[in-house]
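EI: anyone free to look at a 139-residue chain?
SC: sure, send it
EI:
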Amino acid sequence: MAEYSMISKDFNQALENNQLIGSKCTQCGSYAIPQRRICPKCHSENTELINFSGNGKLVAFTVISVPPVKMAEAGYNNKNPYCSGIVELEEGPRISAQILDVDLLNPNNIKIGTKLIMSIITRQEDDAEKSYLAFHPMK
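SC: here you go
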């Protein structure tokens, strides 16, 4: 794992390097994503940076056809919806991300419990490329 710290911009830097980082409390063993200096469960300051596997399962989702501004600028609209979901990582924590390669026209075909793997979406915003976390079904 590259040298990352507990500051939030390093989470985005890790995504650019196709890595999903977080933290683990050395006192109670709980995980956090993105990484945190203080454990959200026991409030210990004894946390360490970890690299997540990027594997997980879908635990909640919604298909969005009226997007916020940034997603509309990326080309999403009522004729081109996208799926946003909550993914429970193998290690335990949950994170929100875009879910790719699912049947957006028939959301009832999207199943809770679907095994997912991490992916990265790169979009041009303003004058720079930005990387975003996404997941797609395992094949």
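EI: The domain at 55-137 is CATH 2.40.50 (OB fold (Dihydrolipoamide Acetyltransferase, E2P)).
SC: 👍
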